[in-house]
Amino acid sequence: MSVRELVVLGTASQVPTRHRNHNGYLLRWDGEGLLFDPGEGTQRQMLRAGVSAHDVDRLCVTHFHGDHSLGLAGVIQRINLDRVPHRVTAHYPASGQRYYERLAHATAFRETVAIARGPVEGDGLVTLAETPAYTLCAHRLSHPVEAYGYRLTEPDGRTMLPDRLAAHGVAGPDVGRLLRDGELRGVRLDDVSRVRRGQRFAFVMDTRLCDGVHALADGCDLLVAESTFLDEDADLAADFGHLTAGQAGAVARDARVRHLVLTHFSQRYDDPAAFGRQARAAGFTGEITVAADLMRVPLPKRR
């Protein structure tokens, strides 16, 4: 059975706290796993969450600030220690190549896995990978160091309509033939089915409001968005290149997001629920999750 869920490994910003680890998020997408922004301590959080190195197919780093990348060295070494047999690809801003090299070879270890490199550069939505299950894209964000957010889009599919199939006398193996060929004995696929919209996921970390935020969030079923600051500190957010909870909510509202996951919280705040309240006050009517470490968030069911 396919599983599509977000495993939250850490939710702190800048420094970990007693209750929040540095960043780390694993997206399970059917049989693949995409690990986003492994901060310090990610290896231990993976253990606590029941995530193994074998679950990781892609490493996706938004930028090379420590709370988003210091765990990369340990995760890469664990992938090698466990001799992960499948292909693993690392994506990260091309401008941070020297940081990736330092982290990937931070200490001596036996290299048993050749991790492929897929550095990100360019403007607009940049396609990084196309597989039968999804297309992975990135878009530049606005932060003091170069940063990219990520977007995963499933291809559209088809939902067969039993009443129309029966009306056209299509049954059994003929259904598969019609789905494969698009036409069967004068019956077109459009006559007996409707388009099933592919699911969409986006990961937006450290950034001010910018075109990239809106492009990544557009129409997402699940949007993971940093909300480092509350709205009363909007000036600080702009100065340091971050979003507020209300800004994240407004983006999700305008982008018609179905489920918004807020994360990357500043340690200055004591009430996590305030982030959800401010996102809701911005007019977002979908589902909101204020992320906590080791939480699992399923993707919404298809429309």
Can you characterise this structure?
The radius of gyration is 21 Å and the shape is globular. Strand 7 and strand 8 form a beta hairpin. The protein contains eleven helices and 18 strands. The two termini are 19 Å apart. It has helices spanning 42-49, 66-69, 72-81, 97-104, 162-167, 173-181, 189-192, 211-217, 234-240, 245-254, 273-281; strands at 4-10, 24-29, 32-36, 58-60, 89-91, 116-117, 126-130, 135-140, 148-153, 157-160, 183-184, 187-188, 193-196, 200-204, 222-226, 259-263, 287-290, 296-298. The mean pLDDT is 96. It is an alpha/beta fold and 303 residues long. Helix 3 crosses helix 4 (97-104). The strands form four sheets. A seven-stranded mixed beta sheet has the order 6-5-4-3-2-1-18. Strands 7-8-9-14-15-16-17 form a seven-stranded mixed beta sheet. The protein has a two-stranded antiparallel ribbon with strand order 10-13.
